[in-house]
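Quick log. Single chain, no ligands specified.
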Amino acid sequence: MAVWWGSSVECVSAVTRLLREKSIERSAAALAFERLHALEEEWSEVEPSIEVRNEAQQLLRAHPLRASDALQLASALRFASELNERLQIVCYDARLADAARAERLVVLG
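-> predicted structure:
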């Protein structure tokens, strides 16, 4: 499993937002943070680079993405390019999923 280097920040942001909104209990947030930490121990991170930044900028011109989504997609495309493979991406955001499909990634979710 490979992720954009900012993925854990996005996860913490989402969980803390739900906690502030009282949409989840503290125990559920604690469990989410534990699971996130366990995943962080196992995943590989696509580090920031000029190539990822340039790719993200091109994706923003081609697709209606938010900046963080463009960085995620650029990281996936860079990782796929380095492996010379067609990768799968897990995604539950419609705009990001559409852009990933347009960039020839297999979307799960």
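The mean pLDDT is 94.
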